[in-house]
Write a structure and sequence with these properties.
Elements: E1 4-5, H1 8-28, E2 34-40, H2 44-60, E3 63-69, H3 75-85, E4 91-96, H4 106-112, H5 124-132, H6 140-151, E5 160-164, H7 171-180, E6 184-188, H8 195-201, E7 204-207, E8 225-228, E9 232-234, E10 237-239, H9 244-248, E11 253-254, H10 261-280
Parallel strand pairs: 1-11, 2-3, 2-4, 5-6, 5-7, 7-8, 8-11
Antiparallel strand pairs: 9-10
């Protein structure tokens, strides 16, 4: 079997087009929303993502502001700075780029961001809305994954879906969304004993760990759809969790890294920003 690569950039462009139209309408009505990103330190994957967010925002005409802080700052200092930043009435979206340095209390930082501009949906209040189904925006990476399936006309209802990685950015929120859509979800983390078996059973396999070659060809069901949201770097080159060559020999469809989930995640973040701007009117 010879699988096909999913063109994430093409899907992202569709989302950016509809986001740009919404933004143009807002500007016509006197609303000029802004997305702000807080970057602490120089984590390679974080810098990469922030740069792409800025480029995409510029492409659609969305004001983008980057606030950079030294990696040695304290939680208290960063909270004070966030409170200053989010006083801007035009601010429609604010994110703290993860991961934050170890000395910073990540939960405190995420919960300092006002829920109405928390476009990453990482505050406790916004996660609780996701749990009960009252959210009006979707976390960007899970939203990107659902956008891929929608673009491919693939319904998850009644399907066996395995998600590898139970983190707050991908696994946990995606499992909630998938369950609500009628999928039979297996959520695997480092304590799961039979992860490989659960992967082989899944018609849709999603991974978001950040470990090169975590998913090999013998872990994939023939004809499966593989969506790779993991990011790892080796010798200054970006990789996902999935061994692409082996996956393409077994699966029907596979997202590449780069050029798969990443661009769509950025597009979903900008879409969330515009939706938040509309809700603030």
């Amino acid at each position: 079997m010879s699988g096909q690569l999913i063109n994430g950039r093409a899907i992202a462009d569709k989302i950016l087009d509809k986001t740009a139209k919404k933004l143009a309408t807002l500007k016509t009505n006197g609303v000029n929303p802004e997305l702000a990103v807080i970057l602490v330190g120089n984590d390679k994957s974080s810098v990469n993502y922030v740069e792409r967010k800025g480029v995409a925002a510029k492409k659609i005409g969305l004001k983008f502001t980057l606030y950079k802080f030294d990696e040695n700052i304290t939680t208290e200092y960063l909270i004070t700075e966030i409170e200053k930043i989010q006083n801007d009435k035009n601010l429609a979206g604010l994110i703290a780029q993860l991961p934050l340095p170890k000395q910073i209390d990540t939960a405190k930082i995420l919960n300092t961001i006002k829920p109405e501009i928390d476009v990453d949906c990482l505050s406790d209040k916004n996660f609780n809305k996701l749990v009960v189904g009252t959210n009006f925006i979707t976390p960007p990476t899970p939203g990107a994954i659902m956008a891929i399936l929608e673009d491919l006309n693939i319904s998850v209802s009644g399907k066996l879906v395995t998600i590898v990685g139970a983190g707050a950015l991908v696994g946990k929120p995606l499992a909630l969304i998938m369950n609500r859509a009628g999928a039979n979800v297996s959520l695997c983390d480092s304590s799961t004993i039979d992860t490989a078996t659960k992967c082989r059973e899944a018609g849709i396999l999603i991974t978001g760990v950040g470990k090169k070659d975590l998913i090999r060809g013998d872990m994939i069901k023939p004809g499966a759809v593989i969506i790779d949201a993991g990011i790892d770097f080796e010798n200054n080159r970006m990789y996902g969790d999935v061994n692409i060559a082996e996956a393409l020999a077994v699966a029907a469809l596979v997202t590449p890294t780069p050029g798969g989930v990443g661009p769509i995640t950025v597009a979903q973040l900008l879409w969330n920003t515009i939706v938040c701007a509309e809700n603030k009117k």
